[in-house]
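Technical note accompanying the year-one report. For the benefit of new consortium partners, we illustrate the data format agreed upon in the data management plan: each record pairs a sequence with a structure-token string. No post-processing was applied to the example shown here.
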Amino acid sequence: MNRKRIIMIFPVIIVFIFLMNAHAAIAGVSDSQKQVVQAIQLVRSAKGAIARDNAARQLRNVVLATDPTTIDDETIHAIASLLQAREESIRYWIAEALGHFGARAKFAVPKLRAILDERECMIAETSSVGMIRDTLERIGEPAPERKCDHYILPK
């Protein structure tokens, strides 16, 4: 009787093990990846300029503490999407985070250059321009020559 019970239970155990391995493969996202995704969500959900700045700085800290190879391309694109922020401090932290990925962030070059075109000649207390230039270099793209012969006040 025990032998029949074992023979009957054996296929169930095999299926259970298979399903657990499949679940582990799907859930096999690294802790670093999870932390970066959570930090992105925090930037998106933060209310107010100070909270958004702090969240963006924290995202940069999390990114710089990771091995860039443990972060997938979809997440790097999600980080780059935060460049749409109007706040210069957020753009600064996001640009620095993108620089950590080097050439893998090359897709962000047009947006980074657009921000340079928009902001480079503006006088501002906080500016992302210097960090964007550094990030372009880290990505492997030469930063364009500085074009300002005069400066304007931001709107």
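Partners are asked to follow this layout when depositing records. The longest helix spans residues 2-26.
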